[in-house]
């Protein structure tokens, strides 16, 4: 059994009892409010929102305000090329055709009859960490917030393709969304069969419209843009379609001027969420460094934390559950004594991949790389506890 330790002085910032008035708080003097039919957060949490929130601009997850690993559905980042369509699930159909023995159309109700698979996975836009975001706001929401992590439920894509009898020579599947962008993406069949789901639920309830209601493709570990929302068609083929959103966009520009296409797996990545830019340590004493790590290649194996801009590193604790292709929470105790800190985290996954430093990443991909940015992020903690970007 763990014994209680009796501290000589409080280090977590609590105030001595008796130092504040002890009148009954107002909430104890009257009945409370009625319960809403569908609950929403306290009005005192009104700052914890997606930013920005235009029709077409991506809206980012406030990672610095969240705990644990599951992103609340209403705070999941969202990226929509033509806004959020309103789709009647009773009228919606999913067509599976191409290199199959029997082309089929499925209703949402048909897909609900397949064995239900529930798994937790992150979703990350290929453009997360692109330099432009930090110009809109110097917080972890702008630097890393095009990522979320949900519990998803749906039918295995493999089961649905087998129902239609996909041919042995099929190697690609084109997925099409029912939004105004005529959004379509080619997915290598091998990747599509590796844990891919046609999901209808997110965090225990039906998908939110922003996340693809009533059906979306969920491809664990692959870049967000391949996870086609409002899924209406799967065309099984033996070649990619080279559609606009896999050639003109979401294709990686290399330093030699060539483009890499269909490099879909998101690399190993991590970020410290507290302390992070825009936050402030309230004074000297005890805190906890907290952050998130994830990899599209598998599980997180280790996260190291530095307080001195990479001169020395210490292993952080990984919190259960450490799931493949999912956010993993890490932490490390921090004693802040008023000396300046340069805080950063560096993740390693079970495939042995390690996050590069900003300099290593720039040497490899250039300073203006906009897709698949996974460099180590450093925060500066000033002597007064104020946290800002960069080292
Ligand atoms: N049909 C359709 N699917 C889509 C998109 C879209 O605009 N239309 N955006 C893609 C992009 S670029 C990303 S990053 C993810 C975002 O998923 P989310 O909005 O659920 O976070 O959806 C992808 N799927
Ligand atoms: Mo994206």
What this model shows, in words?
With 391 residues, this protein is mainly beta. The chain folds into two domains: 63-256, Sulfite Oxidase, Chain A, domain 2 (Alpha-Beta Complex), CATH 3.90.420.10; 269-389, Immunoglobulin-like. It has helices spanning 108-112, 131-136, 140-144, 157-164, 189-193, 244-247, 358-365; strands at residues 94-98, 104-106, 116-124, 147-156, 172-177, 184-188, 197-202, 205-206, 216-218, 231-237, 252-253, 259-260, 269-274, 285-294, 300-306, 314-315, 317-318, 328-336, 341-349, 378-381, 387-389. The strands form five sheets. It has a five-stranded mixed sheet. Strand 15 and strand 16 (314-315) form a beta hairpin. The longest helix has 8 residues, at 157-164. 40% of the residues are buried. The mean pLDDT is 94. The structure holds the ligand Nc1nc2c(c(=O)[nH]1)N[C@H]1C(S)=C(S)[C@@H](COP(=O)(O)O)O[C@H]1N2 and molybdenum atom. Residues 76-81, 123, 125, 148, 177, 179, 181, 183, 210-211, 224-225, 227-230 line the site of the ligand Nc1nc2c(c(=O)[nH]1)N[C@H]1C(S)=C(S)[C@@H](COP(=O)(O)O)O[C@H]1N2.
Could you say which structural class the secondary elements and strand pairing correspond to? Answer: mainly beta
CATH class of the largest domain: Alpha Beta
Q: Please report the total strand number as a whole number.
A: 21
CATH architecture grouping of the largest domain: Alpha-Beta Complex
Strand and helix order: EEHEHHEHEEHEEEEHEEEEEEEEEHEE
Largest sheet: 5 strands, mixed
Oligomeric state, counting identical vs distinct chains: single chain
CATH superfamily of the largest domain: Oxidoreductase, molybdopterin-binding domain
- Structural Rg: 23 Å
Residue fraction in strands: 25-35%
Helical percentage? 10-25%
pLDDT average, as an integer?
94
Count of the separate structural domains: 2
pLDDT < 50 runs, ≥5 residues: none
Our count of helices gives 7
* Lateral strand order in the biggest sheet: 2-1-10-5-6
Task: Give the distance, in angstroms, between the N- and C-terminal Cα atoms.
Answer: 42 Å
**Cofactors, ions and other ligands in the entry:** the ligand Nc1nc2c(c(=O)[nH]1)N[C@H]1C(S)=C(S)[C@@H](COP(=O)(O)O)O[C@H]1N2, molybdenum atom
């Amino acid at each position: 059994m763990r014994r209680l330790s009796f501290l000589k002085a409080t280090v977590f910032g609590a105030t001595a009892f008796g130092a504040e008035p002890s009148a009954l708080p107002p909430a104890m003097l009257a009945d409370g409010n009625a319960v809403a039919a569908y609950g929403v957060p306290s009005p005192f949490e009104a700052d914890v929102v997606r930013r920005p929130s235009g029709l077409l601009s991506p809206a980012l997850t406030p990672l610095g305000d969240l705990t644990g690993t599951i992103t609340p559905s209403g705070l999941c980042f969202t990226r929509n090329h033509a806004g959020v369509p309103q789709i009647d699930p009773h009228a919606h159909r999913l067509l599976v055709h191409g290199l199959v023995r029997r082309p089929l159309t499925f209703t949402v109700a048909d897909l609900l009859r397949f064995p239900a698979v529930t798994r937790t996975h992150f979703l990350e836009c290929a453009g997360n960490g692109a330099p432009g975001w930090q110009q809109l706001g110097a917080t972890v929401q702008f630097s890393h917030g095009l990522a979320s992590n949900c519990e998803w439920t749906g039918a295995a894509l493999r089961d649905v393709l087998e129902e239609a009898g996909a041919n042995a020579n099929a190697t690609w599947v084109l997925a099409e969304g029912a939004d105004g962008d005529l959004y379509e993406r080619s997915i290598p069949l091998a990747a599509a069969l590796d844990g891919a789901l046609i999901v209808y639920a997110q965090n225990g309830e039906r998908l939110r419209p922003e996340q693809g209601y009533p059906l979306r493709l969920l491809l664990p570990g692959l870049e967000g843009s391949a996870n086609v929302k409002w899924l209406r068609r799967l065309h099984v083929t033996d070649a990619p379609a080279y559609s606009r959103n896999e050639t003109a966009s979401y294709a990686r520009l290399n330093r030699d001027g060539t483009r890499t296409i269909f490099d879909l797996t998101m690399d190993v990545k991590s970020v410290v969420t507290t302390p992070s830019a825009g936050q402030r340590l309230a004074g000297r004493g005890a805190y906890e460094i907290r952050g998130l790590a994830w990899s599209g290649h598998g599980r997180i194996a280790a996260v190291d934390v530095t307080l001195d801009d990479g001169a020395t590193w210490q292993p952080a604790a990984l919190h259960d559950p450490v799931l493949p292709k999912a956010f993993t929470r890490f932490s490390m105790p921090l004693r802040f004594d008023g000396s300046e800190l340069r805080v950063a985290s560096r993740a390693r996954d079970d495939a042995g991949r390690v996050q590069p430093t900003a300099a290593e990443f720039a040497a490899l991909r250039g300073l203006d790389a906009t897709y698949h940015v996974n460099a180590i992020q450093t925060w500066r903690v000033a002597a007064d506890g104020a946290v800002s970007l960069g080292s």
